[in-house]
Automatic annotation (TrEMBL):
PROSITE patterns: THIOREDOXIN_2. Residues 131-140 have a biased composition (Gly residues). It comes from Actinotignum timonense. The lineage of its organism: Bacteria, Bacillati, Actinomycetota, Actinomycetes, Actinomycetales. Residues 173-327 form the Thioredoxin domain. This is Thioredoxin domain-containing protein. Belongs to the thioredoxin family. DsbA subfamily. The chain crosses the membrane at residues 83-104. One of its GO terms (molecular function) is oxidoreductase activity. SUPFAM superfamilies: Thioredoxin-like (SSF52833). Residues 21-41, 51-60, 114-130 have a biased composition (Low complexity).
Length: 372
């Protein structure tokens, strides 16, 4: 969507201290973001996103101006080819980063001490010649695909689905492994739904001031919550407040987390998104969008203990936790925009329609079933 980046802040490894445990495999440098030389939203998947540029510079423009792509269409970004060159380098660097992650602090009960136990999918049939080969920006390298990527693509082909329209193309096998080794939000964070032992993990990376995040939330989260409640998926929401320097979206993130500690994270998130939409993305209204007055009003509306809510929202622990989530998105994954979504080993940046998300969940579940 828009280019630019939040003002320069320290988003280095210090963001992990006391927040993340040790992943079971290389869990950094997964490379969902684009070529850092291009300040546009891009990545492993398709669809528009609210973008940030390099790690430092001017704050991203707000309100967003680019309309989302219609359902079933995908947006190719000019940095896609550079992205896939970068991804191969990151796959090597990940081994070094993993060694660094092993030295990080222990979990504080909000991020797991290790990656969640995603079942490891294995191919159950020989790869068809050329099957699953991706193109830059569509979830695959222009090389011979691994067995899991090949099987994933074949499952989609068997269903008559079109990549980038009906489902999200997956990543090469080595990247899938890294994505599934990322630190996981624990239920104690208040920002999850479902059973962590569910076969498919769905993690959304989002900012409450992002209109594409709003669209994704409104269209997809209600059904995703249903799937979580049925035990089909484990749903988690990671806060990446890229608009914190323009509309204080980090305050909204802290408030949502505080509401989550009282069991109302998803309801509170809906109120935040509704409030942003009601402001009509008017720059004159933006500064007060996430004012303490509005944040308290949402807490009252949901019947929360407002005093406890305020204390949690304004605590140093919550501030640190939000910063750790931001670091996970911007530094570990290399995101340059929101929203982004990771479904087991498949990642996408930008808005995705509900059908593409649920179909991708089906494909990932099929991989797990075939491996069990």
């Amino acid at each position: 969507m828009s280019q630019g980046t939040p003002d320069s802040v320290d988003r280095g490894q210090s963001g992990f201290q006391g927040q993340y445990g040790t992943p079971a495999a290389a869990g950094s440098g997964a490379g969902v973001g684009p070529d850092p030389s291009v300040g546009a939203a891009a990545g492993a998947g398709t669809g528009p996103a609210s973008g940030t540029g390099a790690a430092t510079g001017a704050a991203p423009a707000w309100p967003p101006s680019t309309p989302p792509a219609p359902a079933g269409e995908e947006e190719q970004h000019p940095s896609s080819r550079g992205f896939w060159v970068m991804i191969t380098v990151l796959a090597i660097i990940a081994l070094v980063v993993f060694a660094v992650l092993l030295t990080l602090g222990s979990s504080n009960g909000r991020f797991g001490g290790s990656a969640a136990p995603h079942p490891t999918a294995t191919a159950t049939a020989p790869a068809a010649p050329g099957a699953g080969q991706g193109t830059p920006g569509q979830g695959g390298l222009n090389t011979t695909p691994g067995p899991v990527e090949t099987r994933y693509t074949q499952l989609a082909t068997d269903r008559g689905w079109v990549a980038g329209q009906d489902y999200i193309p997956t990543q090469p096998d080595e990247i899938r492994t890294q994505l599934q080794a990322l630190p996981q939000l624990e239920t104690a964070s208040g920002q999850t739904a479902g059973d962590p032992k569910a076969p498919v993990h769905v993690t959304i990376y989002s900012d409450y001031a992002c209109s594409f995040c709003n669209k994704l939330h409104a269209e997809s989260v209600p059904q995703l919550l249903e799937l979580a409640n049925k035990g089909d998926i484990y749903l988690a929401y990671v806060q990446v407040p890229i608009f914190k320097d323009t509309v204080s979206s980090d305050r909204a993130a802290a408030a949502a987390h505080a509401a989550g500690l009282q069991g109302k994270f998803w309801e509170y998130s809906s109120l935040l998104f509704d409030g942003a939409a009601a402001a009509g993305h008017d720059p004159d209204k933006a500064p007060s969008m996430f004012s303490d007055e509005n944040l308290d009003a949402y807490a009252t509306q949901l019947g929360l203990d407002v005093e406890a809510f305020r204390a949690a929202r304004d605590s140093a622990e919550t501030t640190s936790f939000i910063a750790a989530q931001e670091s996970l998105g911007l530094e570990t994954l290399g995101l340059r925009g929101t929203p982004a979504i990771i479904i087991n080993g498949t990642a996408s940046t930008g808005y995705q329609p509900l059908t593409a998300i649920t179909n991708t969940i089906e494909l990932e579940k099929a991989l797990v079933d075939a491996a069990s």
